[in-house]
Model the fold of this input.
Amino acid sequence: MQEDNLTFVNEFFLLGFKLSLNLRIFLFSLLLIVYCGTICGNLLIITLVSTSKNLHTPMYFFISQLSISDILVISDIAPNIFYILLNNGMIINFTNCLAQLYVFCITEASECLLLAVMSYDRFMAICKPLHYISIMTGTLCVKLVVIIWFIGFSLSFIYVLIILGVKFCGLTIIDHLFCDLVPLHDIACSDSFPIKLTMYFLSFPFLVIPSIIIVISYVNVISVILQISSNISRQKAFSTCSSHLTVVAMFYFSMFSVYVVPTKRQSSNVNKILSLLYTVLTPLVNPIIYSFRNKDIRQAVQKTFKSA
Done:
């Protein structure tokens, strides 16, 4: 019996939200609107940055890469959530589960690193304006992006290898919205310590170090803004920084809560809501905060529609 219970599991059941049919339909409709808005908004950013010469700057280049990451993560997660909401659950095989986990880890890891690089770019532009052009060259920006995606692809593969070494048996119900490390850790029947160790180990390059870079960069940026004599310019700069920091804080708070400092008292529903913050809400908000509130982007949109 023990040997039978330890047989290899080829399928999982994603439980999703335990809601009534009406609530699931409402949530499905809401998420569908968010998904369509996210895809359209981020595709527009990528198109504008690639076609408008005025947007060929390091800041917009990094924003376009952030848009690519946002499109990938929500496209990786949202279709499954739609199916789960309509069918009150979903069966996913082991291979598809690993593939979803791999794409999810790549995109989230890359986004963490991109946000750190973007904060450093803002630090250089505002605090070191005379050296900005000579340091943040096009070659350096391309190298940084290549390194970020390479790190994302490489280190995320470690997660997949760790999962492949863990056995799952018995009741294979994942009380979550998608295949993620924490719920997979919870249902493992063999030693799941490697999963937890990997989560904590890789949280340093993906969460802790980027968050430190972001805090240091924005502290310096705010200190420079405070020295601006014009009240209007200072308020405008503060408004931009505060909106950026709000999105970054929401993203990192939810990530830290799930992966770095999870608690046993934290219910599965709380984890699901937190996961929606960085997989669904952040990809929607990013283009609005970083781009559509920007005068250059609005001008590029107007020129595009006029030329059309």
